[in-house]
Amino acid sequence: MSRGVATKRGRRPITLGLRANAAQFTILVAINALVGGMVGQQQTVLPLLAEDEFGLTGYTFMFTYVIAFGVTKATANYFAGAWSDRFGRKPVLIAGWLFAVPVPLMLIWAPEWGWVVAANVLLGVNQGLTWSTTVIMKIDLVGPKQRGLAMGLNEAAGYGAVAITSMAAGYLAAEFGLRPAPFLLGLTYTALALGLSTLAVRETRGHAEAEASGHVPRADGRHDHLHGELSNREVFAQTSFREPALSSASQAGLVNNLNFGLSWGLFPLLFASSGLPVGQIGVLFALYPAMWGIGQLFTGALSDRWGRKYLIVTGMSTQAAALAVIASAESFELWAAGTMLLGAGTAMVYPTLLAVVGDVAHPAWRGRAVGIYRVWRDLGYAVGALMGGVVADLWSLRTAVWVAAAVSVVSAVVVAVRMYETHHRPAEMTPESADHG
To answer: At what angle do helices 366-394 and 113-142 cross, to 10 degrees?
Structure first.
């Protein structure tokens, strides 16, 4: 399905739609898989490295690398959105991969924990610039009809790669030690991604301009006051606080990644405390993003058919139930069920929240809106790691998981009360217009 636009940029006609832009879309999916793999190379390994090689015992201190990653990635998301609207998408994508080059080497050679934290600062910049830009570019390419499907494919690739690489890193760590084998994956991913971004990716900002020229307002008049260019301050205010759907998506994204950040730093320690070997911990950690990644192949497209709000509320509630299972479990089998359920809930939420932002944000300021939404969402890494570390130090690892479950319930209620349905058909295709046609 595609949508032709009577616009040209240079000599190349611009057409919106997944089929019309299949080659570029596929390249961007592959690049986003490599982005996810950069995170997966370390998720299973670093908590164990902190204890075994650096002798760290305080949970809050061990989670400093997650906090550094989350804060840096959130900040980089903002600049990715602003710069992609101002300078274009492709330069931001390439710059993001340049920041990744030192990361695996720093993790391999780190003589002290400060090197690991510094590597995660650079990784946060890499993730913020590259992941945000691939999201924006895919939204540019597909147009308004298939945003959910596009975001499902994008996030499935990224988190599927997290799962595969987490499992591969766990296997390499078990067979060859915690360093350097798992981090050689990151070196390979960076080289491939830089080559693809530089040689194969084309600029997509022209697609956003083409969509803006043919933008169709909602039949109910909502968003009329948001048409056209907004200042950076206005985009931040609308996305963070004022616009009900955008601000609801921002808080739900934060809580979703709060759960991810907490799981990143805490789950391996919880599983290890019951005597599970590294190999089984790697499997458990891979099940979460595997379900997350596979599920998004379906949930993104379903949100194009069913709407966004229902999936988001159901997904946040499912995450709360999954965390309750994980907090109370004592065996590998129950933990496996809990992590798979957590992945399923996250799959309902993750691409759908991005589709909400694409639905509401005007093409003229969409890049900045995506960046700001991802600022709030990825601050969840830091909030989850800090909250999990503090609660685990004061009480226990299991208590920290119960607290995250309660926060997820509150988030679901906020979306149910405040968010409206954002997915709509063009005015000429509404039931009302059909009835009067």
So the answer is: 140
Mean pLDDT of 162-180: 85
Nearest to 211 by CA among 372, 423, 430, 6: 6
Residue-wise burial string across 410-434, b where 16 or more C-beta atoms lie within 10 A, e elsewhere = ebbebbbeebeebbbeeeeeeeeee
Closest among 232, 327, 300 to 29, alpha carbons compared: 300
Nearest 5 degrees, angle CA 261-CA 191-CA 73? Answer: 25
Contact 157, 293 (CB under 8 A): yes
| Sign of the four-CA dihedral 113, 76, 391, 289 | negative
- Per-residue model confidence (pLDDT) at position 10: 47
In sequence order, which ranges of 274-308 are alpha helices (DSSP H)? Answer: 278-306
Determine which helix (DSSP H) or strand (DSSP E) holds 173, and give its type and residue range: helix 147-176
Instruction: Read off the pLDDT of each residue in 13-36 and give the average, rounded to a whole number.
Output: 90
Q: Beta strand pairing status for 12-17 and 2-9?
A: antiparallel
Rounded Cα distance, 383 and 386, in Å? 5
pLDDT tens column, 389-412: 889 889 998 999 999 999 999 999
Separation CA 388–CA 348 (nearest Å)? 24
What span, in angstroms and rounded, lies between the C-alpha atoms of 206 and 71?
31
Q: What share of the chain is helix, strand, coil (3-state, %, to 5)?
A: 80, 5, 20
Token duo for residue 272: 């290890």
Q: What is the pLDDT of residue 215?
A: 58
Domains and CATH numbers, the chain: 14-209+235-425+430-434 (1.20.1250.20)
- In 3D, which of 104, 174, 88, 195 has the Cα closest to residue 136? 88
Higher pLDDT, 263 or 342: 342
- The band of 228, judged by pLDDT with boundaries at 50, 70 and 90, is low
Confidence of residue 12 (pLDDT cuts 50, 70, 90): low
Residue length of the chain: 437
430: left (phi over 0), alpha (psi -120 to 50) or beta: beta
Residue 131 is predicted with a pLDDT of 92
Q: Look at the block and give the residue holding tokens 């008049």.
A: 221
Instruction: Name the pTM for this structure.
Output: 0.79
